[in-house]
Design a protein that fits this description.
heterodimer; A: 492 residues; mainly alpha; 2 domains; 19 helices; 69% helix; B: 301 residues; alpha/beta; Rossmann fold; 5-stranded parallel beta sheet; 13 helices; 9% strand; elongated
Chain lengths: 492, 301
């Protein structure tokens, strides 16, 4: 079920009201059934895959806790293999097989491995990683194995974060299912406000920007540099609003019922470096990789060359986590390169800046650092969004061509028409609205540095506060895009 | 708690009022700028002795000026491209509520007329009138969920605004209606389908048409079903053409006629056609002439 669907508009209040009406003992069952319904709205049969990993990890958790010595590791390995195995079959089999087949074909061999014709289960990477974090934490002794099968199943399947995170840790979520959440008006208000902001980001900003991005990225070879640049910048904000919008709706929906999910985004485009960007973007995934891959590899307490290798491994795996395609691997590798280059050149850069009188705490440094980080992250998104490596390379090499022509009135009209899919009115409409929405987003987020965006008028009078809520709701109705667009991160 | 509840109620009431006002403003602006033909019927302003309803095969084929000059009765073309009977039946019903002069109602029958699209054609014409029960019924036949929500859930219609709405509200002015609703197609030949195909047909839409006929004749109006010429090369591709024609034939009775022009000699001459199923301006003039002569006989029967 999509959050931005009519079904969810009915599903959410019904599930929430029933949750508070039901006796405490039955609430876990109610949430589990609701989560099953939520998941089965996509491809019902795939719930069996989820059930398979839940059973394996539930048993593995209990066995790890009871076992001693090498057996603990054995049960952990079994659990990890089961989870990674599911990912390997459903997400990566065709990618690796396709590449092997291509390699054989290039060498003139007739050898051909069969490909599977299966749909990728929605949110597979999210709930698999969440399940893995449970067995790893039990193995590390940081979390007691869950005895209640239903509660454990709910930990993996809790509907707000089932298909696109945040990827929760058992220490944060499991105990909450045992707590008695009475209806709390403040929780309800805060949750609904966060959901409203999430819906606005998804339906109004992300899906509007997607109208331009789709046109540009579907046939990049037909576009000149300015259109490619517009499409790429729009995509940077589209993916942010799409994914952080989902997270806001998920966190808000859970909050209404009294659950606290972890923060997943913290104004990433205000980061002053790529390493800071990764502490602000998809926080639940980046901390997952830090805790379960980067630190076990040695983290940063190793030699420089080993540190660079660790970073490369983590980011290539992160790229692969996003999708079975060379474009995602290239995106991850590019981020690894940014980080390694940043670390290697940091002393020289600091020296150079202090020579011209710019300190790390000055305003000009912050502005330059934020802008350059935004540019680097945006450039990397080309590889994330492009349909193939060929397209990604075409876009990245043609990004700066054709700007001279675009500055003339005729050239400008050509660009507007191109991003509108050969329709000047649509192009102008989407471009103007898209730019205005990005500006609005950035201003609102700048104002709300340490508070939720919807609280920026909390200290103002009611007219201003309510006016802001009305503006968002009416914008959702009036300029939202309603073609049931899926959230980008569902595919992962 | 009571204070909070009161606040929530006020918040929601104000929101509903704001949404209602915006919806009303858009509907009003839209009704003023949308197609003259459609708005005029909804405002009960169009009335003629010969009213022609149908899709593009009416809009582009039946020239009211030629028909009037031969029959001596004034005619008006209410054809809209892409609209099949299930959708324009609401418009016919609305017209019947106020008409005073109509003597003959011509229903143009293309071979998809008794089928329906998955989505409503030209929602921009129909949505502002979702509150009208006749329009609502035809909308409901095609997209029941959307129709229901448009009518009963405040603000839902706002989520359906698309390019057609925006451009009409902001930019377009309605075109002048100088040809009594008729517009000719160009002489350029644009053939599309090449493979044999089965035209859309749904029995319950035929039953809807069957039920509509008596409501028209009850008002003393003669009903004429007419299939305009189809280019021979295209006609033979329609696999269920005879079955559909027989359905129309079965409706013939007192005050109901069926005219079939698919065997007319002009069907073999490509010079009269814009594509397989549409006549060009020259063909439409010739056809309107022939049709008007046949209609004159019916009028005097």
């Amino acid at each position: 079920m999509l959050f931005n669907s009519f079904q969810f508009l009915l599903f959410f209040p019904i599930v929430t009201i029933l949750y508070f009406l039901l006796p405490y003992k039955l609430r876990w069952l109610h949430l589990l059934v609701a989560s099953c319904i939520f998941y089965m709205a996509f491809v019902p049969v795939y719930i069996l895959i989820l059930f398979f990993t839940i059973v394996i990890d539930y048993i593995a958790g209990l066995k790890i806790e009871l076992a001693i010595g090498k057996k603990r590791k054995l049960f952990l390995v079994v659990s990890l293999l089961a989870n990674i195995g599911v990912l390997a079959v459903f997400k990566y089999y065709n990618f690796f097989t396709g590449n092997i087949n291509n390699a054989f074909a290039a060498s003139g061999s007739d050898f051909h491995l069969p490909l599977l014709s299966i749909l990728l289960p929605i949110g597979l990477s999210f709930h698999t990683f969440q399940a893995m974090s449970y067995t790893i934490e039990v193995y590390r002794g940081q979390q007691k194995a869950e005895r209640h099968f239903g509660i454990y199943a709910l930990y993996v399947m809790f509907y707000p974060q089932l298909v696109a995170g945040p990827i929760e840790r058992p220490q944060n979520l499991l105990h909450q299912f045992y707590e008695q959440h009475d209806f709390n008006l403040d929780n309800c208000k805060e949750g609904l406000k966060q959901m409203l902001w999430g819906f606005f980001k998804k339906i109004v900003i992300a899906d509007r920007l997607a109208q331009v991005v789709k046109v540009v990225y579907n046939h990049p070879e037909n576009q000149a540099g300015p259109a490619l640049a517009i499409g790429t910048v729009f995509f940077a904000f589209q993916i942010y609003c799409d994914f952080s919008g989902y997270s806001d709706i998920a966190i808000g929906a859970a909050r209404v019922m009294g659950f606290n999910l972890m923060k997943n985004f913290n104004r990433p485009y205000f980061a002053r470096s790529i390493s800071e960007f990764w502490t602000r973007w998809h926080i639940s995934l980046s901390t997952w990789f830090k805790d379960y891959l980067y630190i076990p590899l040695g983290g940063n307490r190793v030699s420089k060359s080993r540190l660079y290798l660790n970073l490369s491994i983590v980011f290539v795996v992160s790229g692969l986590w996003h999708g079975a395609n060379w474009t995602f691997i290239a995106w991850g590798a590019l981020h690894a390169f940014y980080l390694i280059f940043g670390l290697a050149t940091k002393p020289a850069r600091v020296k150079m800046l202090s020579a011209i009188g710019i300190t790390e705490h000055s305003r000009i440094f912050t502005i330059l650092a934020v802008l350059s980080t935004l540019c680097l992250a945006t450039f990397a998104w080309i590889f994330f969004r492009a349909a193939s490596m060929h397209d990604a390379l075409f876009i990245s090499t043609h990004l700066f061509s054709g700007w001279g022509q675009a500055l003339s009135p005729h050239g400008l009209k050509t660009v507007i028409t191109a991003v509108g899919g050969n329709d000047t009115i649509i192009g102008a409409f989407n471009l103007t609205l898209g730019c205005a929405l990005i500006l609005f987003l950035e201003l609102a987020q700048r104002k709300a540095a340490h508070i939720p965006v919807l609280d920026i008028f909390n200290n103002s009078n009611r007219i201003l506060r309510w006016g802001f809520y009305y503006l968002l709701i009416i914008s959702i109705l009036l300029i939202g895009v309603y073609d049931n667009q899926e959230f980008i991160y569902f595919q992962f | 708690m009571r204070k909070e509840l009161k606040k929530i109620l006020i918040f929601l009431s104000l929101l509903l009022a704001a949404v209602w006002c915006i919806q009303f403003a858009i509907d009003t602006a839209y009704k003023k700028r949308v197609s003259n033909k459609f708005t005029k019927v909804m405002k009960h302003q169009t009335d003629a002795e010969i009213m022609l309803f149908g899709s593009s095969i009416v809009y582009n084929h039946f020239n009211p000026k030629i028909i009037s000059s031969i029959t001596g009765l004034d005619a008006y073309n209410m054809g809209f491209s892409g609209l099949f009977f299930v959708q324009y039946s609401g418009l016919i019903k609305e017209y019947l509520t106020y008409q005073k002069r109509c003597k003959v109602m011509v229903i143009g029958c293309d071979f998809d007329n008794l089928g329906k699209n998955e989505f409503m054609t030209r929602p921009d014409l129909f949505l502002p009138y979702a509150g009208n029960s006749n329009i609502y019924q035809s909308f409901y036949e095609i997209e029941p969920r959307k129709a229901f929500m448009s009518r009963y859930i405040p603000g839902f219609k706002l989520t359906l605004l698309n390019k057609a709405f925006y451009t009409r509200i902001i930019i377009n002015q309605p075109a002048a209606d100088t040809n009594s609703g008729y517009e000719a197609l160009t002489d350029n030949w644009e053939a599309t389908k090449k493979e044999p195909f089965t035209s859309r047909y749904q029995e319950h839409i035929f039953e809807l048409l069957q039920a509509t006929v008596p409501t028209i004749t009850a008002k003393g109006i003669k009903v004429v079903f007419a299939i305009p010429p189809v280019y021979t090369g295209g006609y033979k591709l329609i696999l269920n053409a005879e079955m559909i024609k027989n359905k129309y034939r079965s409706l013939v009775g007192k005050n109901v006629w069926f005219l079939d022009y698919t065997t007319d000699t002009m069907c073999a001459n490509r010079n009269y056609f814009h594509n397989f199923t549409h006549l060009n301006g020259q063909g439409a003039a010739l056809f309107s002439h022939t049709f008007a002569q046949d209609l004159t006989k019916i009028i005097h029967e």
